Amino acid sequence: MSSLKEITASPTYNPNRVLDAIIEKLQLKNDAALSRALEVAPPVISKIRHNTLPIGATILIRMHEISDFSIRELRELMAH
Fold it and tell me: Alpha helix locations (H) across 1-80?
């Protein structure tokens, strides 16, 4: 199993897939609504989207808690 560090360093890493999947699953309007759901500041979502901040373990767990996606599903969304 790949580590989060390996996934985020991969050339196929695309954080937008996981963010968009959570927005769709929770029927949120936008990234601002996602930041509220994840209880993070809006710039955190922007930095993740623009690939300047990797998705770390803490936010990955929070994504799992609010979306009911398994950690494995979230990691697969990030890696493809």
Answer: 4-9, 15-26, 31-38, 42-49, 57-67, 71-79
Model's pTM, two decimal places? Answer: 0.85
Q: Where are the domains of the chain?
A: 4-78
Task: Per-residue pLDDT tens, the chain, 80 aa: give them.
Answer: 456 666 666 667 889 999 999 999 999 999 999 999 999 999 999 999 999 999 999 999 999 999 999 999 998 998 86
CATH tag, 4-78: 1.10.260.40
Q: Which two tokens stand for residue 64?
A: 């799992």
Distances (CA, A) of 46 to 2, 72, 76: 25, 23, 21
Q: Find out whether 68 and 27 touch, Cβ atoms under 8 Å.
A: no
